[in-house]
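Minimal example, chain plus flavin-adenine dinucleotide.
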Amino acid sequence: MTETATTQTPPYLESLEQVIVDVVAPAAVEIDQTGAFPRAALDALGAAGLLGLISATEVGGQGQAHRAAALVVERLAQECASTAMVVCMHYAGATVIEAHGPLDIRTAIAAGRHLTTLAFSEAGSRSHFWAPVSTATASNSHIQLDAHKSWATSAGQVDSYVWSSRPIAAEGASTIWLVPGNAAGLRIPAPFNGLGLRGNHSSPVTAAGVDVPTTAMLGPDGGGFDVMMGVVLPYFQLMNAAASLGAMEAATVKAAAHVAGATFQHLGQALADLPTIRAYIARMRIKTDMVRALLLDTISALESGRADTMLRVLEVKAAAGETATEVTDLAMRVCGGAAFRKEVGVERHFRDARAATVMAPTTDVLYDFIGKAVCGMPLF
Ligand SMILES: Cc1cc2nc3c(=O)[nH]c(=O)nc-3n(C[C@H](O)[C@H](O)[C@H](O)COP(=O)(O)OP(=O)(O)OC[C@H]3O[C@@H](n4cnc5c(N)ncnc54)[C@H](O)[C@@H]3O)c2cc1C
């Protein structure tokens, strides 16, 4: 297991390891090939208490927070990035439900009986998730939701969506809703067929006259922006960075093993005997360890309320996402044609790692936010 911030392995990582050995790792290649949803892994993670990792102990959860969520997602991503992303988006939705949702759903999440996700991105506002154009209309003490959501991880597989819309009446950019996964009027117009994360089922979801009670509102009308930035963003940024870290950790380890074992018989040498190859491996190790250090520092900043927490939270996903594309690209290079022909297993991590750059907040939007923060300008 990868070294973590703590010297002793926390119990949740021990139970995760069993699920990884029994279910996640054996299924990873097939999930990538077929695009199948990792249902068996989610069932096992639920039974091991890991879907309730960040649920409060009062509702039966493990009462953990950002550090645990990031470490679990990283370890999953080393083996199966699709499973890691499904769990990442589950925790991102679960934290909103923990803060504003009903007791029965919180209890079901804690017990591992309820999978959720975020449905923020829309066809109209694209990656600018903080500005939904979809609507919530009040009628007869009920709410009607109409939307063209462009991406929702685990689409069609979840028990609920944590959903954004324009406010009903209040000022503000958005309102957040809890929408049952089987609500009448929800439709998935196209299956997911992605370059990477192939089992994460990130399809579009449309809503035509979806009826929810007013009690489905998570937080105040018009308060969606605060939920997105205050509750979701720190979790999402850390977990997405952790997923990138998992991909580069796995690629670095696999590449090092390959170059140590692959030989030029006519020279009596391994690939690793070439200084060029060793230098690339060294760069991969350094970049991976730098990202790990930044991730752990960001978690520490958050836990201790350090003044630079928001800057670190913005930085960590951009740094990890971009570095993961570089490290997995180097893995492809040093493993040569064997990697191209999928013999080494690094090509899956190379494809999986590409998603972080365009998952919102995208790297380029983060560069803009970070630049503004550093120059003392308002972010929005
Ligand atoms: C695997 C995967 C899973 C996903 N899961 C979810 C999910 O569960 N829930 C959810 O809500 N969404 C999800 N998304 C959607 C994601 O968060 C983004 O909204 C989506 O990837 C944006 O794609 P787009 O084509 O709309 O990008 P566009 O908005 O068209 O962006 C295109 C390019 O323009 C750049 N750009 C845009 N605005 C700016 C700006 N202001 N400054 C500089 N550059 C800019 C972007 O960085 C990008 O490079 C997922 C996406 C992926 C790939």
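The CA atoms of residues 74 and 243 lie 5 Å apart. DSSP finds eleven helices and ten strands in the chain.
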